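Aim 2, interim progress. The first record below pairs a target sequence with its structure tokens.
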Amino acid sequence: MLNYDFVKAYLASKVRSERAASLVEYALLVALIAVVCIVAVTTLGENAASKFDSVSDAL
């Protein structure tokens, strides 16, 4: 009985640590996607603003 409890506790600890590692990896992916989105919106916003300025000056 003691051996089974040890194996059960060992496997349970491995599952928890892998789940936590997966959670950290997903959090890093979400953060990276957010940074890419912010950079893209900033760049597109600046380009759109310059286009609107050029159209406004043309009028």
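The second target in this work package is listed in the same format:
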Amino acid sequence: MKIRVAYFCSAIMLLTCLTAATGSHADDRVSLGQYLLKVQRYKDAIDVYDELIGQKSRDFHLYHNRGVALLHTGQLDKAISDFNRAIELNPKDAESYNSRGVAWFYKNKFDQAISDYSRAIELNPKFTRAYNQLAWILSACPDPKYRDGAKAVEIAKKAVELEPGAHHYDTLAAAYAESGQFNEAVKIQKRALLMQLTEGRTQTLEKYTERLRAYEDQKPWREKNAAGMKRTESPALTAASTPVQTRIDISPIETPPVKPSADSNVSEEIPEPLPSIPSKPPQQSTETSPVKPESEPAVADVTPPSPASKKLVAEGVSTYPYTILIGASQYRQKANRIAMKMRSRGDMAFVCNEVTPDNIEWRRIFVGQFRNQTDAGKMIDDLLKRKFKDPQIVHMPFAVQIGMAVEQKEAQKRESAFLSMGHIVYSTPDAQNAGKVRTLMGAYETEDAAAILMQNLQKAGLKPRIVRR
């Protein structure tokens, strides 16, 4: 709290100095209010907008923005009052209708929410977030009388067409599930999950994965109630400058990174895999990154193998002992993003931890599993055409098995569960048990190297075993 207050006071002092130099106190306060909303300091923003509204009581932007701050602090009735005033001052402002719709939604007033979202679309036929919110109510509303799967699919497709972001694909998947098209729901939800991973928005992975499991079980998604919402899209900041489009998850409120503005050249489409990553882990760390290394959970801790591990005998026959090394990173998040970009394009990519003799931990990124070097060589040709630098065929006959499934569907569920925890595993047919699918983690040259991972998985309460790939 002391830090927050001090930071706020510093901002005030800076703007005071600017005011003395320019004489534009009101404009500076408007900028401050916008800034406080952007950094999610909603109570401070309310104080600023209280002052501004006393000076410019007929500026609808100010009422709307204070309503946004009130909404984020849970003061729904006051937020609705401000949105009402904004609409009164500017009846053609689509943003205010959409924002009021969000507030109605939180109050379980679904009729009013649908009405406001619909009015926002009438005023602005390209208002993506209004389409998305309306489709979500029609897909997942706790009250069945408001659900309409076919209509939800139509509206959600419009949102995706206007802006192919992960949260819009998430809504489209819910719409497909509500209409009984579970295969499509699973496919689209996986796409949304992949996009969130590649964009680094890991705070929604648990909920996205939970929805994926529901669709795999042939169950549509249901919101319990608006007061306990775990999903909606917040209203944007309305101002003459760049709008802020955020997304909030209530209970508690969590706000992901601000999305690009309409003028931004940043695309939400998944970019091509990075070709410039190192092909081998060097002996000393040379990589620099603004992202701090993440602490690994228990399953990724590195401990030396016990002497007994040398006596382990891997089970099975090496059916796919070859894979291709495309790069490495000291940062788990970066390695996972690269692997997930590959997977989003149909490549079977995975990440494997390795410790160098200098005790430096790296995440090596592999793609594919092959019976022989000839088959792997065909993939090398494809990777070189895609401008990957120095992909290498490697012989990695060992892996750690973390599960066996009778159906591919069951294996996919296990993959999704580990993916939600930040671990990229993969599935392969079991050569000794026709019709069964093995879920594997990692790829290793020796059994001793695989034993490190196996021991750590055992510490996490799992029952893994070393097998031949």
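The mean pLDDT is 76. This observation will shape the mutagenesis plan for the next reporting period.
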